[in-house]
Protein 1
Amino acid sequence: MDFSVLRNLISRYCVGEEYWVDSRTVYIGHKEPPPGAEAYILQRYPDNRIVSSKYTLWNFIPKNLFEQFRRIANFYFLLIFLVQLIIDTPTSPVTSGLPLFFVITVTAIKQGYEDWLRHKADCSINECPVDVIQQGAVVRTESHKLRVGDIVMVREDDTFPCDLILLSSSRDDGTCYVTTASLDGESSHKVQVTHSHTQLGSHKALGSILPAHSPLSLNLFVGRINIYKEQEEPIARPLGAENLLLRGATLKNTEHIYGVAIYTGMDTKMALNYQSKSQKRSAVEKSMNAFLIVYLCMLIGKALINTVLKYSWQWSSDHDEPWYNQRTEIDRERHVIRAFTDFLAFMVLFNYIIPVSMYVTVEMQKFLGSYFIAWDTDMYDEDLGQGAQVNTSDLNEELGQVEYVFTDKTGTLTENCMEFIECCVDGHIYIPHAICNGQILSAASSIDMIDSSPGGQRRVSEGGRETDHEDLFFRALCLCHTVQVKEEETVDGIKMGLHQGKPTSFYISSSPDEVALVEEIKTIINTLFDSLLHVLNFDSVRRRMSVIVSVKPVSSGENLLFCKGADSSILPRVVSGKVEQVRARVEQNAVEGLRTLCVAYRSLSPADYEEACHRLSAAKLALQDRDQRLMQAYDFIERDFTLLGATAVEDRLQEKAADTIESLHKAGMKVWVLTGDKMETAVATCYASKLFRRSTQILELTKKRTEEQSLHEVLFDLSRTVLRERSVLGSGSGNYREIFLEICRNCSAVLCCRMAPLQKAQVGLIKASKEHPITLAIGDGANDVSMILEAHVGIGIMGKEGRQAARNSDYAIPKFKHLKKMLLVHGHFYYIRIAELVQYFFYKNVCFIFPQFLYQFYCGFSQQPLYDTAYLTLYNISFTSLPILIYSLIEKHVSVETLKRDPSLYRDVAKNSLLCWPVFLYWTCLGLFDACIFFFGAYFLFDNTTFTSNGQMFGNWTFGTLIFTVLVFTVTLKLALDTHLWTWINHFVIWGSLLFYVIFSLLWGGIIWPFLNYQRMYYVFMQMLSSGPAWLGIILLITLSLLPDVVKKVLCRTMCPTATERAQVGPLSQCSARTVRLGLHYNSRWSCSSSYSLITSVTQL
């Protein structure tokens, strides 16, 4: 019996997932090791099948029903339906069962369709072709048939079907290039390597691999490979992340590779790291649940009141049961059970006050309404060839309630397209000359850069080099990078390498800064070098990269180490050079918003080079603490630099980014910029994007300031400035996080610098503050995913850092400028529509059921229904459902141009203003008033016996039908009065619904239906319409019911109109509203103004 699965589960969940390590032995090609080498243990592992679907054919019905009946309204109606089946109730079980069945069926079809799409996606992945080596031949099979130990051949531009260990590459140096855009959002090319012992004839290799990895990290992997050769001891070599090819990554710039499958299916790192999105609930849904509880209490109260009044009325013998239905002695003794039964019967009679169909209508509105975003041509980008995408439709209305916007900087506010601006060599500043977009103009001969320093006359040309430092500086830029040349390709859906529709060569790199530098330097100098000896790759801890090269002009036997990185990483390691001049220029460029890099070099003697090679080799072969030993080797090699200079590139601001931020400010939203960039560069971007203004008072919270003062004192000063309160901190240390967030909430803008991805998500915890503001996060890279998932609404930008952010977001847009229409137009409309939908549903159900409550006072609390069974069943399903659905899809209370021109209209619907308790009470009271008009109006009309033309009197069902007719016409015309945008669709559904009710009533009461055991509605509707007083009563009651709402709207629009109401009748009057803007910025400064902006380096707090 195989206990491997059970053993893995115990070790995983008992130890803790973050510490769980999966250890296994994988035999390459399923070949047994030589006798005596090691014990051959056959192990079983899952196949390569990926499952993302939620249901299967056999569990769909029970699982879906369980999930649907977890919703309180569905469960409530299920109980009511069961009560109707068990006890004798005044209404048929069909009246509750049919609407419930309709809601459950529609929802199940929707969820089943969505899961069917997931099944199709899984099948397309599991059935994709894969090349496997079997008995020395390449055999094509399907992906789901892969097993651990199979040798797989992957060709260029193919995706790795499972987690592989690289055995061999078609490249001579044993390397291959991969992109991991679908895993971490990075579209740059990464280098993976193989061992020299497996590079030749890898598909014939005989060996075993012992991997041990942590599933939560894509970049951590430790293992060992044992290579067996005839008559020789096995060769053991370490394996690391540089040897691992992850499922989902794509092979690039390499013809083909061979690899052995070590993790398949749901054991792959991609599957183990899959983080399902937590279910986000909108403020509207929370309001709906709160209103539902209120109406449930009203229902219980009505049933309780009627039960008590019934037995109080029957307490007297004069009001006991009639002579033909007298109670027996047993019935009199079982009064408690009878009372409880009556209570349940009243609950059934009044249960229609709970709008069960509201939930399915809301779901349909959200699902269908989401297509309007995808169809919006204004949010279509020609360069990407894509428009906005909706990944979830549950948060459409939340777009109209945003109070805080958290945005990334690079690639979100900026284009992430670097342009070379200048370089500084030994204090001399060089700027591009006669260069446009990396191309030399025809008027330029050989001069590419000129010295723009004061009094500088030197220049760099192709023909000669002026100084050694200039030569070394440009050689460093040419050599110290990871740039590659590539023809046309598509990286994660983004087409690259097209110029005027024709494929051309282009540069690709892990950093756009490097591409900008290489494109600029390529025409300046022709570097002659023997070989690139070592590459010390960039990492976020060192914040620099280095290369060791052998350059021909250098004296024999010596090599050069060129290093390029952040100023904070390079300058402390410099021992010579014009440090102060370069530092001053770097700081000035940072203030101007430019991205800077420092360049230095070191000459390595033969002894130094040998020592460097020894340390690097020993660190790479280490089986334990490999990363730590590599860092120690890098630290030893990268020292004693001579500073050469610095570069400056510009990341241009996105089109209309400043206009978008300004509009968001006018709409009452506070924008926070969360970036990992340095303070000076981020501040300059904030000024350029109008997040900060010159009159804004900047507040700083930096490491430097906290070193000079205690954190308590700094926060005290900030709170005193912003909150104008000395007592906010008190004498104790207090909760610094809460104090800090309180300061932030009183700022109009915040800039946080040097932030890690997790810190971005932690700042988003402001949504849990006492005000519970609605937050929105927008970013374009994988480092923004945690922030996007944490916020109430997450928006991903289809940028140049891959599509990870777009995939994990709720909505995806091509550019930052499209956020303006997404919020100010679509969000505004969605909230207005769904707020009206929710309030209208509760209103029309109060109008529907309250006359039934009043009727019990006139029928001896006998639980006699006022309406016919057909009317009870179809009221919410057919007669009144379609008009409100269409209204919630196409209503526009103001034009799109007005909303875009005046962002302040967004404030009218902020803070869930249309679903607050006062508005809810108004709609409820309006429903109660209309219900009283319906009932008592019809009652007083019937006070004197009303005769038809043939002398017959109106009966009980005629009375109920008259009220129901007034009810249907009133609630439908109420919606017509609220409609501002009239189209043929509105006319069709509103007047068509009324016509459908009339036609149905005529058919329902005009035909003797053979399947009914009663015909109580026969000829009732026609008899009512044949009476002149009935026509007069219907018209009069409809007018009286609609009159109060019309008067209220006229008075409100005349005496205290809102900004939206003024915009509906004409140009919006200019209001002099003083807007206080406070920019909160991590790593920042304070300046004097009436508004504030705070800047802080979060990593230091």
Protein 2
Amino acid sequence: MNGSSGPDWQNNPEPAETSSKILQALEIIHNPTSTNSLRQKATHFLEEVRSDDYAPFNGFAISSNRSHPAIIRHYGLSLIEYAIRHRWDVGAPEKSIQLRKWVVDLAQDVLGGDPLYISNKVAELWVEVAKRSWALDWMDMDELLFHLWEGHLARKALVLNILETLSEDIFEREDFTAGLRGPELNRACIDIFTPAAILRESFVSRDTNMNVRYGEDGWLWRMGALLEWCVQENAATEPQRACAIKVLHTMKSAFNWILPGALVKAHSMTRVLSCLGVSAVSVQLAAIDALLTLYNRTRFLPDDFAELICPMYSHESTGALKQLFEWSLVDPSDIDEEKYLLSKKISEMVFAVGRHLEERPDLIAEKCDLSKYFDLLITIMKAQSLHTSIPALHLWVKLLSSQHYGRSKTVTSLAGQLLEICSHRMLRYESLPEDSPNPSILFLNEDVDTIPERHAFLGNYSRFCHQIVEMIVERQPADALYHLLGQADQVLDHLYDGEPPFQVLAYSKTSVPVLRIDAQFSVIEAALKGYGRWLTADRAQETLSSNLQVWCERLLGLTFEDPLVLQRIVQLAVVFATGPLKGDARFAFKVFDYSLNARRPDNNNSATYTEAIKELESLRLHQLQRLAMRFPDYFITIFDAVEQKVNEIALATAADDHTRIRYSSVLFIIIHRATAVDQEQREEKLDYFLNPLIAQWHAPSLTDSLSSFNGFCGLLGLGTLQQYALSRGMHQTPDWSAHPLDEEGRVLQSRIQNSLECLPLRATKTFLSVSIERLEPGSRPHSMACSLWHKNFTSVLPNLLHFISQAQAFHDPTYWVTLPPEATGIVRRILTDRFWQVGISSGTRDDFYAQVGDTKSTLEGLASSVRGSIRTVREIGYRILHYFSLLGEPFYCFEGLPEPLARALFINACALSTHQMAVLVDTIRPIIENCPTVARSHFLPPILIGLFEQLDRKTGEEWDRIEAKSKAASADDNLSEEMRDESILRQLTYSSVILIVGLLDPDKPVNVAPNTEGIGASKALNNADTGTTRSYVLTTPAVLKPVILFCTHALRMRDTRSCNLITRVLRSLVPDFAGPSAVATEVREFISTEVLKACITSLHDPYFVDLQKDLAQLIASIVLAYIPRTDTPKQVLLSLPSITGEKIGRFLNQMHRVQDSGRQQRALVLSLLDGLRGTHISEQGRIPKPDLKSVRSALHDKYMNSNMEADRKQQPSPELEGVADMFN
């Protein structure tokens, strides 16, 4: 212990007077009639009292006096808590012993009538003392607990609370106090929970006696005996039920780490399973939760497996679970939340049990009745709630993939039922309205709060259904396919049964017939994928393949008026042609011909129908390209006929040049990819397609127009936009959608739309995509594409870069010279993309597009045309660059390209909106990552430097703007707009961080330090693999500087996913700069100051409270790796308030002793910075009772995994002025 002995708590000179003042202050605070001034003074007084030397004495005097109200006694307990947490090591050892004695006295004074928050706080104090002194100088704790246990139920509940919290803090939570004494607390906890006989059996060669346990039984046995008493007579009384639940919660906390043999010895499983028969859902839920924790464990020894897992496959266990599950099913129109949660938990538990079945089939005993277990899985899978059924669905994917079970007779006999269920569940639920009476939708509305989670969940559900169908067909192709095709025939023959006939004016893209066809065809597509895997070279099945062809030809002979039904027929036919029937090129041509002619007349009376027609045409062209890529050698033999047919259709139906180019691209593909074409003839024909296009690129008129901003505007029909906007007062008009366009505006809008069609951008993108996408580098078509485009680089690239540069400059108001300063705000307004964002935008996606359509002829519609034109130029330019990069070295080694490319992409990048900047990042990432090693020094420096300088500037400015707006928030603010802005900024931040991860991936073997969690011996930079992008960046100071600067600033950006990844990246970098080189020294000093300060600042911010573990580990890494070479980290830490040289010295000594334990390193850092780190709400004692509807397991979180972080209204950050001062 440190410091002076301090005050004598037994001889407080003014105990009564101080206690009286405390009581008065508390009464003022809790009195609703008190003035704010009085309440503030009282609060200030209580804050001073808490830090007083006599605070623990006063706290005990108040809390132990039962004449005081419970809320007053609770404050007294908080005074003791403060002393334990923050002043435990201050003063003589007797002070800590006295604190411990008071806590024990308070525990022994707990009565059944005490409010729950009093006994909970007493248990919390006990645990805080235990984490600091148990098994160190407090050896009789277990005996004290045992004597408490022998008392009334309230005392038993207190003991259970202590044991549960102790177990979770030591083994589960990232508790830094427990972490400091991890190994000894782990052993002590195992010692008192486990029966002594099991300890002796498990650790024969080790002394298991730590002198901390009392008695032979252990707490696992004692809890089991109490549980057995609780469930006697069906847990008839409320105290029995409450006690049973508390026991189960405590057992659950231990089930994650307790020795499996202890569970067998204590008959824990039998006792927990008996709770499932209790007529109380709350008890059943607690029992299922405990079982779920146990069966989520891995690596059971064979004997433990036989005792704990195999019994769950018995006839009795599966029968009881099935009976309980069927009882727990609820009516979707009147959901009993507790029972519904029980059904979902049972499903998860059955999944956890089944996972062991799939992972260790060799340990399954013969007495296990797997047929009954599989029947239980089928029953769960049939549940109307998709959330209830998805674990069973997932488990079937695992079992069917298993070599042991996938082909077993028991599983094979269930194929029909599995196909039937999956066929019905292939429905596109996301297309059904939220008010649909469909039971699955009713449950889905109950389970999912946000649209992104809904889409992610339904995507996972559909994927599992697909996989089950695929695997069943792969194993039983004939039976399964004939069954599914027969099902499809029924749907096709009765498509409109019970539905009104097709009508254009009442057209809907989500009509029942469309959804029926889509679901049935999705099943067939999955089946064909499975059949394709079965249909290997030595397993040809002519009869089955012939029957498939007959069925598909019958499908092509059917006539439907709905363009979306026709679209699905085209898609499915192409799957047949390119999949199981790919050996028949003649059949492929039939599908080609059908797709070419699968058109429907337009009808201007229905905008929805017109949109569906456009979707059909786009899909037809895509499918024609797919067929041309797959069968070029056959199509070239009939090329004249194909060419004539394609040109006729294009001439008759193509509404614009872009569509005509896409038809031409089909012919281009055939010539490019066919092998039986003379090389000279091929080049001549391909040049015939490209020469007119290339001529447009190097036309002097285009070059002249792109050489100036005004010329660029004229090229896009935007030359008079500024004058028109100013003359119509757009900068003074709040609602553009309320102002129809006049004649001049309509002419301007038409000119903008027509000008875009005259540019060579779209055609270039189309021909590039069909000539380079999905080609293996080094293949003949790829080599041909390289040759074809390499000779045209010089014609395309200069003006392409001008297009990109001018399109991005268009976002900068300084180029809009005609506008006066007060009108420049319309630039941002015109160019801010309107888009519907799931989970944030109000209304549905269809409502949004309907609104966009309604404003087409207004000032808002004109703005939409402007932004659409600029966006098209910019994003097609990006896409062309991406396609060029796929050509490999010819692009990356192109002389003189990197600097102009960097200028075009980044010089005006900060003028882009956040969303547009994210698009730029996503475009440039694969270009950077695919750079060949030979071209890195030539290509990467200007690109990486320009990119990260602009990213750092843009993200910094936008996060500052969001922060300032949040602090100035008012009730009148548009929350949905703020949420959207923050969500988009998170996406940009995350995209940028993903780019960093790609460059400096810490998971690559070459980058892993010898000690993966802690920091052991550092790794010198010159030992890195010089062939990686990572090593190139780290050895190129000019590139490393902006990269590491962005990483440092990202530690303060309020996006948890991004910050988590950045801490990983920076941890991987730390060892690389522990060497003696000049570069390593400079970077080491930067990390030791700026990165360390950023970590500490984020650690102080409550927003980052869930990332404290990651931040603390990064701080530990810096300290361990760098303090042997530099004093800078130590000086930064010493500059913090309350950090003394003595503390730092003790901290460093302890850190060097725990280099192999990441948890202890983190605990030491968090302990050192305890007064500076942000506080979690749970540490503040403000945890609201969870709503049953919001209770979600880790498994269901996995099923609803989405790339989009849940958006929420950002809370104002605390004042951080003190943080800046900390470094002074």
Protein 3
Amino acid sequence: MATKKSMTSVTRGQSRMLRYTQLLTPLGNRGLQQVLTDFQITNIKKVFFREESRQLNQAQLEKAINECGGISFADGQFDVLFLRINIKRDGYVTWDEFISHLILGFKIQEVSDEAKALDAPISKKPRMVRSNHRHPISVITFNFQVKSDRSCSYSDGSYITCSKDGFINYWSLDLQVERTVQSKCPDLKVTDTWVLSVVCLPDVSVICTSSTERDLRFYDTSAKKFELRVQITSLEYGVCSMCYVFQKDVNEDCKLIMGDMGGNIIILLFSPLNRGPFRSKLGIPLLRVRYDAVLKGMEPGFRIVEFRRLHRDWVRQIEYYYTLNFIVSCSVSHKAIVMRDINENRGIYTYCIPRGAWCFTTADGAVLMASGGPDCLVRVWNPYVTRRPLVIFHGHHTGVISLIMQDKGEILCSLSEDKCIKIWDIPNQACMQTYLGLGAEIGEHAHFTMFYNPDSRQLLIGGLMIAVLPLRPLQSGEHTDGNSHSAAISVVLYNPLFKIILTCGLDSNIIVWDPWSGKRISVVKEAHTRMLHGEIIPVDITAGTFDPGYQLLLTGAYDGSLKTWNFNTGTCLRNMRIERNCEVTGVVWVNGRILAVGWNRHVTEFSDSGGAAGPGGAFSKPWSTRHSDDVLCASARIPQTLATSTYNGELVLWQLETGQPYKQYNVANPTARIKINYNLEKERNLQKPHKILKKGKLVTAEATPPPPPPPQPLNRRRSHRKSIIMKGPQPKIEMALKFTRMPKELVVPDTIMPIRGLAVRCMQFLPSRPMHPKVGSLLVALENGDVQVWSHHISGSFIGAFQAVHGVGDYVLSMASDSNNEYLFTGSTEGYIKTFLLKGFYENTEEKICMPLYRLTFPFLWKRMFEGRAMRTLKDQHRPILLNSYKAHRSIISGLIYIHENQILVSTGADYTARLWTLGGRYLGTLGTFKPWDFIDPDKVVDTTFKLKIPPDIRRVMSSTTCRVLMGEHFVKKLTKKQEAAQAEKELEYKEGTRGIYGKRLEHPILGNYINVPEKTTHKFEISLDSTFPYIPVYQHLIRPAPVELPDISNPMKKDK
């Protein structure tokens, strides 16, 4: 029995392995969550719980996924996947880590959904406009300009605002007052009545107002008039809300739909032919008629339909639902919303809300409706389901007074009495934004009204003033490829382990990108925050780097905070800080240590394990202060040197192992070395003159740096790098402290500003080059546009410099190089990317350069009729050789990285975009674009036959050199009128010559030797026709028969003779 049982188990095991081998499917580019089923995940869970420690190592987890899920992995693919799953980085994966990885995989969304969730719908402050009214605005509407085909749009017309005293203002589309009129009752001479509602009848050029006198006044506005044409008096109740409906067919009646204070709905119908009853009649300047007469049909031209007592309270709002052809009205009663058609054929839909509804809105092109009321709730309805709403949004603290829908019912905007605007995402049932930016000038306790223009996507809120809020604009493919962030991008990194790109921006977002598909993998919003007056405010991210193993991320922010992240899961693992309100400008992560520099003017060291970094168990350890100004950038060559530089041009080289400086210079005078005094004091008086070692002798520096200014609060002292990214290049002169009185009689006035040293904007080590005194291994970009070359050897110093820009006031703000340090890529403040050839440039070795080989890659080197500005400026600069120059962004380029395996350059800028380029300068795409993306193979170099295109924003401002680089010389040259005429003449001459009309005669035989053409004769060709038949109709017109003498039948005797 035992033998039979063991043989059975072996057979089952072999059959199981055979079945799994046959069913194994490669994972490919898919995620585990896309392949594993619920049954397979349950079986993997059982494997975890069979182990005593409830965790699996890499080999065990791979075996479990192969056997239970039937998935195979390519070489090295599971190694990367295991690093993603293993959050603790201890070599073992628990069930919680595994299932968390699957859940995070399901959260990856499409590009369009991610783009909508990045920036806030209302991202700008409101533009306040004076209302030109004595009282708060009660109604904002739009007066369309109707065309001949009875079509209209929100881009052609004018805004109309009205207050309760009857004053009506006409506004242009840019909110400039055009004219002011007033609606007055002709029977009242002393006091005026309140105007309750206003509506425009644009197809007949009429404006209708209703007042507390229970009348309707129709004003003729043709030819910029405002004359009372028709007045309907003696209504039973005052009309408090109106809307107007007209069709494109002129034979269909127009409808003026009204709701009154008695809860009734009144529909006034008339024909729009020849302006209907509103056309001027001879001898009748004003038509006054009672409502009863119109209701009984005694007044020709009008027809009234009434729906009585639909509501128990006065009608707050009434609209016509074009999508369903229904009339919708609301009131503060139990029957809050009523929806019905005019003919009563499709029934009545009643929506019951306990406290009623103050407002509602419908979605154009979608079956969706939303309501708001005094209960502070926003309800979203299916119009055909009246029992309960689809979703209820909570969040308002006062009653909701106005609603609008955007993008076919995807976005809902609500306004409450406390001037709080909330933006709701209806598909995801979430609040996207709470906007509290409406100031007190619009009114505290006044009535507010809201109007939305779908063409300009502007939200107009009326009170004591008019607030104009631009909502998120629609992106047009003719003007942009889309944005990657909602603010300027400050950090861009490439992870070679997971083959992803990571960007951080001034919007405090961390985004992980798949560069091969252009999609977002994950987003961490509000990564750094601070509390201000009880409100959480996002903080700009200014620095970032990966750990040596490329599994964790370190970010530094504007307020001095540092955070480590597991970017695969978006989890913050640790919080640190260098100093409060002290911007972090650079971070370096070496084995076991984290180094940060910033406004505190020294290097701060942390332990990456979270333990003590300084003596006595201190959380951090500051290095000695060797700078007299803010540190702007830092670069490290692991494990040898750390280089730091400041705003006034100081350059210090540090030993990474000991943290001690071994060289100090000032880039304004690079040949003079500043002596470093090693002592036990942590701070030295910086006002004492520096000792400079020049040509082996100690001399005293002529200029002494000013004392450091006192620390300033965060809201007053601006970041150097942030201001550059947002505003462009800064001037080379800055305000400093007042001079102290000089011992001489000359008194320096306070208005004199000292010129500071050259600021260092970025640095780049060349790690593939050896550490040698004559080998340039450190590149330093200065504010004057130069790039200095230094040797970080203990015996090395300044070697040389070259110009890297071709415009006045421009300078390099970012640099990158390939793994072999063959190319140098620079990004400037004007948005230009330049590529320099570093081969043989200060390498202490001579290497032959094959320029024809580089011309195959870089179209910039191709011969042209005239040289561009980039080539002319650097014509006398022989080394390094300029290989490429093109405009990549409209504004500052804040970061560059180069992917060596695929020869792809990634650039980020202050224009919110991250773009991919080939080595030769071809544009590949913008990360996060809404346009179709051409997939890039991650295992191959980008093909030169890749589809050539130009960013739309660059197309409008690019130079001829940029056009040649981006299009690879494949572009249509624009000719002048004279050149076009000359070219047309040449083409005409060529066509005529080829036809043989005026050119050389054709040689014989003309038709070749295949057809024998009869010989050409000069004599007349005789044609003989057979005329034996009595009648030949075909050839009768070709022959002329001889005259025939007819017998004279008058004298028959003559014939006999």
